[in-house]
Amino acid sequence: MAKTKILGICQHFYPEMVSTGLHMTELFSGLAAYDENICNIFCAYPIKKEYKALKPPSKEVYKNISIHRTKNIGVEHKSIFQRMVYNVLFVIKALWFTIKNKNQFDKILLTTDPPFIGVIPLIIKKLFAKPYALIIYDVYPDIAIKLGVLSEKSIISKFWTWLNKKVYLNADTLIVIGEDMRHIILKKLPSIDPSKITLIHNWSDSRQIKPVAKEENIFIKENNLEGKQILLYSGNMGRTHNIESILQASIEIEKTHPNVLFLFIGGGIKRAKVKSHISNLVSSNVKLLPFQPYEILSHVLSSAAFSWVCLDQEFTGMSVPSKSYGIMASGTPILGLLSEESEISQAIKKHDCGKVWNSKSKHSLVETIIMMLQDEKQLDLYSKNAEIAFLANYDLCISVEKYNTLMQHI
Prior knowledge:
By secondary structure, the chain is an alpha/beta fold. Helix content is 42%, strand content 18%. The strands form two sheets. The chain has an eight-stranded mixed sheet, with helices on both faces. Helix 9 (243-256) links the parallel strand 9 and strand 10. Helix 12 (323-329) crosses helix 15 (376-393).
């Protein structure tokens, strides 16, 4: 039986196990474990200093995956010009690699990050009839337009929209990570065959992320957090995340609940707002830490009374906060600052593993926080429900099997 030779293209990959890098590493590790697959990855060298210091080679084999890394210039998270240089150069190098090595693969699997990367499988399919599957993590340029980064009438926006339509319509399958995202794609592309769109949720890995009892939690002990009720925001603090509402709530909570700690872990453009809140002594119950090692993520997530999941309502369906699945894997309740129609809101309500709050909610955010913290029995129930729902629906092995079936049939 002929093996399926899959090429994955992504900027971030092992050892840069953060965000998309973590998801793609886990996904391809799972696919490469099937005997019928041969997996290659083209990616960039790590850009975060803690991973760059590891100095990974330009070529290596990791868990049966042949990794090919390229050096890049520009900076991904600085000025728009630097980010453009970084992304465009990666796309050019990836295209050249793909053309040069066209006989080493027969199918392509990639995500929508970085922008314009979809031009690669589009060209390869036109020239060499190679099929491709595209995972839509974020709907662009819609997000950039909503944020005011791009004008809807600009040449870049119009070109990006035109290119995305070409890429989407020529894909052999589109994978969306939320039902709300499927609705947006169908609205944008009324001519597309709905059967080409497959919903496969993102995931966490139950072998890596598990509930950890508070008394055994090394993260709590090492950071002197004993006796604190931790309200945790862990992950990217990006433009689409309503961090401001949490910081405002911390001011009122401080007056009545001195043992409550608003703990922020991670990076992103809104990290500066959290840092400013702390340095200006707006409230003393906010703490900021850098990204923590993946090896202790179970301890980090399990330290919380509940964890925040945020997405501004106007971006519903354009993105899905996939960190929710790691939170559920750790058996931690969720307080979602989300639209009622969002994928994660629907999951929270369906599985009864937390609460959803937004501007239309009956109670204020502070009232919602206090109600959750005061009802310990309900928090325990949310915790148990979160873990049960995760194991039944969002474990890595479930999603990998769906991806493997998909890749065998395109």
